[in-house]
Amino acid sequence: MLCGGVLFWLPTLHAQTTFPQNGVADPRSGYYAFTHATLVKDATTTLKDATLIVRDGRIVSVGVGGAVPKGAVEVNCSGKFIYPSFVDAYSDYGTPPPPPRQSGFNFSAPAQLTSPTKGAYSWNAAIRPEQNAARVFATDENKAKALRDAGFGTVLTHVKDGIARGSGALVSLASDKENMTLLKEKASAHYSMNKGSSTQSYPGSMMGIIALLRQTYLDAQWYKANPEKEGRNLSLVAWNELQQLPQIFEANDKWNALRADRIGDEAGVQYIIKAGGNEYQRIAEMKATSATFILPLAFPQAQDVEDPADARMVSVSDMKHWELAPTNPAAFEKAGIPFCLTTSDLRDTKEFLSNVRKAIAYGLTEGAALNALTKTPATVLGVYNEVGSLDAGKWANFFISSGPIFNDGATIYQNWVQGKKHSVREESWAEPKGTYKVVFNTASGPVEYTLNVKSGTSAALVAGNDTVTSRFYFDGRSVRLNVAPERSPDTRFRLSGTVGAEGWSGYGEDSVGNRFTWTAVNMPVNAAAKSDSARRKTPGTLGKVVFPFEPFGWEEGAAPKQETILIQNATVWTNEGDGILQNTDVLLRNGKIAQVGKGIAASGARVIDGTGKHLTPGIIDEHSHIAAASINEGGQSVTSEVRIGDNLAPDDINIYRQLSGGVTTSHILHGSANTIGGQTQLIKLRWGANDEGLKFKGADPFIKFALGENVKRSPAAQNNRFPDTRMGVEQVLTDAFTRAKDYEKAWKDYEANKGKKGAVAPRRDLELDALVEIMNEQRFITCHSYVQSEINAAMKVADKLGFKFNTFTHILEGYKVADKMKTHGANASTFSDWWNYKMEVIDAIPQNASIMQRVGLNVAINSDDAEMARRLNQEAAKSVKYAGMSEEDAFKMVTLNPARMMHIDKQVGSVKVGKDADVVLWSDNPLSIYAKSLYTIVDGTIYFDREKDVQMRQSLAAERQRLVKKMVGEKRSGAPVSTAQPTYQLMHTCSDHAHSHGLLTIDVQETE
Amino acid sequence: MKKYFLLFSLAASLAASAQETVYPAPKQKGPVVITNATVHVGNGQVLNNASIAFENGKITAVGASVAPAAGATVVNAQGKHVYPGLIQSLSNLGLVEINNVRSTNDVRELGELNPNIRSIVAYNTDSKVTNTLRTNGILLANVVPQGGLISGRSSVVQLDAWNWEDAVYKMDGGVHVSLPLLMPRASFLPAAAGAPDPVKAGMEAIDRMRSFLREAKAFHASGVTSAETNLKFDAVKGLFDGSQKLFVEANTIKQILIAVDMAKEIGADLVIVGGADSWRVADLLKQNGVSVILSQSHSLPILDDDDVDQPYKTPAQLQKAGVLFAIADEDGNTRGRNLAFNAGTAVAYGLSKEEALQAVTLNAAKILGIADKTGSIEVGKDANIIVVKGDVLDMRSSVIIDAFIQGRKIDLTDKHKQLSDRFEHKYELRK
After folding, report:
1. Of A539, A561, A655, A929, which residue is the least packed, with the fewest Cβ within 10 Å?
2. Residue B98 and residue A887: Cβ atoms within 8 Å?
3. A943 domain-assigned
4. Number of structural domains, chain B?
5. Is the model more confident about A42 or about A488?
């Protein structure tokens, strides 16, 4: 700092030495003294009657009182406030506008398989670390002015294009040549979950984006050894160079924030996270990232919900988010999470200050707001020695305002950037409002009046007891007055004058042509400007955050807890040797099944009467696509590197809906867009838990494969992605596992020779790692398949290359090759009665499950459909109907059998002492269409309780009415409203068949 | 002897099970009496230990004491349940063979106003789907064209026929309209360049359709013949004289309000099809005498806020309001075979079993305008009857043993049973 202080006197700042001058040089040092100001140095220090001295663009000194140095121009700031200009850490100011966003994988269009970017860059067009904001930065006066008007002096700008977006530059908002405003060429590195202008098919999903980043971190590390096989890769060079800088990740959403943070954790990087505005909904999780956040203030507008038919399509969560979004910054402050505020995402930068004030009204403290706009962004960017407070040596970036900046109505007059003045509302500098002593120096001597100025256009002259309205004009520089104190047109005075530091003065004429001079001096009222905080409008009663942020979510503290539960006198379907036990008690304790028998006593247990009811293990769905942000990575035929577990979405209402159908465990599978799809994620339906909390811990990892029409892209009018036939599918499998074998060997060779001369580590390939795991029985396949030829062929490839198909899922022609599947050792998970929706299922039959079971396969019935998953018990019953299967065997197809095929039968799948307390109490025989789940219990916690559900419906309806009323009130108050936007829901599906998901559900394949 | 007989009958069924030899049954020859049955009449009544006699395709007697005519074939239904044949009131049967294979699709014609289009002429009696529906007790289906605004006219068919002329049960009885959704585009979806506001475009399209209907009505009311024939006008004539009904696919409140207004204006008998939000305006539907076909109970609620079981309990809400409604099963993956179970689900959520049965029998017949001929087991109606091992609404015991269409005992073999046989043979699983 001290050392820097010397540097700052070098006269290089306002005249760029290398640039020739056209005309006569005009070197100036911009030496100013701002006196008598209330000076806010930073969020903790405010000086009264302060003097700020600046020169050559830097702050020379800051202090109380003090003399104006010789050579400095004094600016009297009496009654005014000086703040450090704000710093925006998330801007694209002066860079090319972001290109139109490309959508994800299009199921029915040709694929773009290679990068269209020319040059020695990454294989993937969305990895653009070589992108350099400084090189494309150009001053943009319009945008600069908008930002300065909002109080900003410095921004970190970057090009918002790509997943890896390259380096950001720190620039000032001065109207000056780029050479002067570019403060730091490489100030940050940027990342996002948006592939931007890349037209390349991969990645076409959230999990693909995550996998690509994960792999690129590994590749960059590996590239440091300059592997000859890679040649020159300028993207990886740039990537490595940028690692020392602050790493900023645009997450734009609460779950994305967690996803980004986990990528960082794996790579040893702590990102600064750009938020989206909904993070208050999971503030504890945000805190746990240890990240600094950059918060936008783009609060949603109220919707026009006056028409009840329109309102019907708007969900209570959207309305609630409208109500609570302004609490987001306060939630961060309260949680002790460091954060910055940004103008990013606003409809108009003009909204910025009013939205900060709104956030303050919703609980943010003024100090925290100021820090978030000055010290915090400057600190996280490592430039607090340059900007972010009013201290000697820093850039002279400050603004002068009429009062405390967070007060409603406070005006910024001037925003000085790098020691240069930029007007904001200069005309208001000498705010005319007030009482003036006016003196007319007439020939007969001075005449004195009092002038009450209400605004720049309205003033009244007090003459004795009389108050006379006058015509008045004031623009900060000149002033005009036209008044008749005697209320007579004959004694009318017309005054013209200028506005000076000491008051107004000028020249006038009366109605008969007499000329005179005049002066007006403000008579100050002694009222120090104060913060509005005491009288700020409070937002009134606000709804509560619920977990998840969805209808039927739990309020803080109201989430169901693990209990000791005794279910008495039920019909118990054990799925064990005991079969179905009548009049039996089951005790659940510590999340486990503690006892099964008659006459069980347990003090303190919650007792549920099971008389006439049926208790079963919870339903396990082997094939589900709920609760995920993306399902299909179809950009390539082999994507074993992508992981569903990277992108769970715990806010999916289908979790709750399926609990109501008795489901306790779901296997979330990658879709069927490609032969070797992604790694799957087993979850328990713990409604309200976060993404990590949903995971079924300790289960064997699985991966989704697929065969047939979808992977050869039959729905596409044109296909250019290998394979196009079942013959090609077989080759994709053969090739992938052959490569995996070679890869494994290369690593083994390397491990054996490590340390010896010439031993070079192979590139770590996450795609092949997953296949090696399969070959070593550390990961297991569930394979979407229909037709007997492809099933047979897949098993032959596996036999030859030494791996196994653990499960064939869907497997509608399994009955044709059940004997071969048995020899291979495969399990079967199928639909009960689907058929004829596509060519490859024309031979599907509802007797399939039964035939496979009778041949000796372990058979499950799966849903692959968020609606049908609520009725899997009925789907199981269809084998009783079509094939005469026993009821007990049928029910095992949705409980114990899927547990066995997913290797979790030690924990779940039957009512057995020691297993997880995942049980359902049914109103009727669970195979009957009349059966309803009364209680669905996971880990001894009652997540669905049919009686409680009724109460929740009532409180939800009340909450809805409250919010509708409030939104309608917002419209009536004249606030801008947007047209009602139906709460559409994106549904991720296997892209295999139709679903009955309701009017507002958009199948993701229609959009990507 | 008994064992021998069983083997013989098995062989006979195998002989008949070659794929294409499930023959449509000939006209009923002699009288048939089903005895000792629990008869679910279809109108809410249940008759225990009752008999049903039918002859020449018509029901001649129903009750506790029915004397079998001489030479009558007696079907002892001891312990069995007998129901009217189920009616699929909304179907693409015979128009769509395999959903995703374009060349097998004949359900959606080009153009906006297509009342002249008739589903019956493309109805394929040999669809492989048909027999799988019969297996589940569905004996009649309303075959409905889709697409455009006025999609065309539907006909009701019986599911045991050589060709569409044989199959037709009621010809061209419904004019089908599909209303635009009238909802703003999802903000997260990129709007195609120049794409119109869907609400505005939808309202304009509806205006065009209403103009057409107005002009058609005026034309027919005038009694004047025009120099140029308008086939489209001719196609909707029945809407104005009550011989055709107006079926409007409408799910949202706005759509339903428009449909009701439109039907009132032209004086047509209205049936709301889809009806996802019909429960919200049930009283209005009741007041206007509008009936509803719920296209699928097995679907998700519209909005996250909705009761998780909303589509399951919608039938009970309509029942309570006194709205005439039918339940259909439009599911594309199971091809409509779960009709009875869509009704069964409604029982779990508030309907009585007999009310649920009515929703797939007599109510459907009323809505389709065929209640004079079918929909219940009553004297004078066609003998469209199924005999079930257990409860037809519950898959736990819903096994159809026998089925009669117009008194003809039909062959309940289907492709699935045949393929099942084929592989039971391979694996030697047959007992």
Report:
1. A561
2. no
3. no
4. 2
5. A42
Higher-pLDDT residue of A717 and A77 is A77
Q: Among all residues of chain A, which has the CA nearest to that of B133?
A: A833
pLDDT of residue A990: 62
- Residue A149's pLDDT band, with cuts at 50, 70 and 90, is very high
**Residue B12 maps to a domain:** no
> Residues of A numbered 653-672 whose beta carbons fall under 8 angstroms of chain B's beta carbons: which are they?
653-654, 656-657, 660
B388-408: per-residue pLDDT in tens?
A: 999 999 999 999 999 999 999
Residues B135 and B263 in one domain: yes
pLDDT at B156: 98
Q: What number is the average pLDDT over the span A174-192? A: 96
Asked whether residue B28 falls in the same domain as residue B139, the answer is no
Q: Which of A480-484, A823-827, B204-208, B308-312 has the lowest mean pLDDT?
A: A480-484
Which residue, of A472, A506, A522, is where some domain finishes?
A522
Is position A354 within any domain? yes
Interface probe for B, chosen from A999, A1002, A1005, A1006 (most Cβ of B below 10 Å), is A999
Interchain contact, A960 vs B305, CB within 8 Å = yes
Which candidate from A715, A851, A866 shows the least CB-CB separation from B429?
A851
**Most A CBs within 10 Å, among B305, B306, B431, to test the A interface:** B305
Q: Which residues form the domain of A346? A: 84-407
Minimal CA separation from A42 to chain B, in Å? 40
Contact A851 B397 (CB under 8 A): no
Chain A residue numbers with beta carbons less than 8 Å from the beta carbon of B348 are 929-932
For residues B390 and B307, state if they share a domain.
no
- Please list every residue in chain B whose beta carbon sits closer than 8 Å to the beta carbon of residue A709: 100
**Which residues 126-185 of B have a C-beta within 8 angstroms of A?**
128-129, 132, 181, 183-184
CATH of residue B409: 2.30.40.10
| Domain's final residue, options B326, B359, B374 | B374
Q: Best of B91, B281, B304 to disrupt the A interface by mutation (most A CBs within 10 Å)? A: B304
- List pLDDT tens digits, range B73-104: 999 999 999 999 999 999 999 999 999 999 99
What is the ipTM for the molecules in this complex? Answer: 0.95
Predicted confidence (pLDDT) at residue A96 exceeds the cutoff of 60: yes
A839/B331 touch (CB, cutoff 8 Å), yes or no:
no
- Domain containing residue B102: 87-374
Q: Are residues B230 and B344 in the same domain?
A: yes
Q: Which of B107, B257, B302 to mutate to test the interface with A (most CBs of A within 10 A)?
A: B302
Instruction: Scan residues 820-839 of A and list those with Cβ closer than 8 Å to B.
Output: 831, 833-839
Q: Give the pLDDT confidence of A589-641 residue by residue, as tens digits.
A: 999 999 999 999 999 999 999 999 999 999 999 999 999 999 999 899 999 99
If contacts are CB pairs under 8 Å, which of residues 220-259 in chain B contact chain A?
Answer: 251-254, 257
Per-residue pLDDT at A918 exceeds 90: yes
Q: What is the 3-state secondary structure (H, E, C) of chain B?
A: CHHHHHHHHHHHHHHCCCCCCCCCCCCCCCCEEEEEEEEECCCCCEEEEEEEEEECCEEEEEECCCCCCCCCEEEECCCCEEEECEEEEEECCCCECCCCCHHHECCECCCCECCCCEHHHHCCCCCHHHHHHHHCCEEEEEECCECCCEEEEEEEEECCCCCHHHHEEEEEEEEEEECCCCCCCCCCCCCCCCCCCHHHHHHHHHHHHHHHHHHHHHHHHHCCCCCCCCHHHHHCHHHHHCCCEEEEEECCHHHHHHHHHHHHHHCCEEEEEECCCHHHHHHHHHHCCCEEEECECCCCCCCCCCCCCHHHHHHHHHHHHCCCEEECECCCCCCCCCHHHHHHHHHHCCCCHHHHHHHCCHHHHHHHCCCCCCCCCCCCCECCEEEECCCCCCCCCCCEEEEEECCEECCCCCHHHHHHHHHHHHCCCCC
CATH of the domain at A118: 3.20.20.140
Regarding whether B325 and B428 lie in a shared domain, the answer is no
